[in-house]
Amino acid sequence: MTRSQIDLDQINTLDGELIAAAREIKVLSRLAWPADVQVRFLDAHRRNAAVLPDVSYPPLELGDELRALERVERRAAAMIHPAAIYIADTARSYLQGARLIEHVGTPEFTTISIEIYGRPGDLLPGGKADNLDAAHHFVRSSKQYFDAHAARDSDYVLPAEIARDEIIARIRQVITDDAIAVVVDPKLTAKAAAGATRIRLRAKTAFSEFDIDQLVQHEAFVHSLTALNGRKQPWLKSLSLGAPRTTAAQEGLATFAELVTGAIDIARMERIAQRIIAVDLALKGADFIDVFRFFLESGQPETESFTSTMRVFRGAPLRGGGAFTKDAVYLDGMLEVHTFFRWALRHQRLKLCQHFFAGRMTLHDIQTLEPLFDDQVLAAPRYLPPWMTRTNGLTAYLAFEVFANRIPIDELGEDEYARRGQPGSDSSPD
User: Fold this and answer.
1) Which of the residues 33, 73, 111, 249 has the least number of beta carbons within 10 Å of its own beta carbon?
2) What is the pLDDT of residues 74-86, one digit of tens each?
């Protein structure tokens, strides 16, 4: 038996132990609120008697899992192998996620959340602007658009049951050999939620065509698709795991997918931006009711305002000064992924972008694990979203973006366009 085979056998063992130990460390499901919390809060709000929600989290004992993760991390860290590096990093990430869960409702929860997900004010790629700057930019852009158009687009809407059937039909065109259930859930508080093999839609809710496009591109063709591809790996099935450290890259890739397919609209960008601003407000002392009113004043309906506020405060103290900062990763992640795709194009390494779909990983992981794809230890993704199979179209989009970003639009005035097309102008048609 060769040394390489010994390494892979050891990695296979560690991989299985990691998957088993991580199974109970599910951050989002542990932070979920019962649906009746929303009912009680909104009922009191409508009577002008709103009070902070009463939320408790069931105790969780993770001693066995933590000890197992520590053993996996220690043994993997002692190995010199790209897959071992991935396993050690992932084990450490789940240990951090477990600490987050153990500190729900305390000030320490916010500290750990910031360590994992960052916070509003973190610098974006390039270091000249931060994600809070970006959030305010998108809110201003949305306001300018809707001020000019007076009302929001009259997009037709579908009931959850019809939306479910359409989403299933679209998924089956791409994910042909695996089943992803799409169900209508009367107990779901959020508008939609997704796991590796199930997408849930909130009952008695209308879904627009943009909603459906976004769910397909974001949830099905990124989150579910990468999890399924990870499960199909021959040697590193932990690539199917949604470790906390992969959140920024996963959400960034999913939001970038919305952008590149035209599934995202300005209202969606506004919602993402408002959540980042809301996290910042909570960290600066706003309580649950203050942030709820912020969303109401921003134009969200009551139910969506509650859901958005819940996202900010799940796991954190409700009286202000703390927050669950996960929503800070959406713009960070999208801009990092966008920049990575442009970098890959410039350096003729678009193959790396396909590797991104072979499992759930960070941008750093893609480069660390690249030799294993080259050696066929790791398999190419079984499934790819349609926009990644049409690389000529993706290349055209990225090439245009790379060049267009060189044009300094802040220096352009209306006279720049007034003079174009005039006699003697270099821009006159041939």
Assistant:
1) 111
2) 999 999 999 999 9
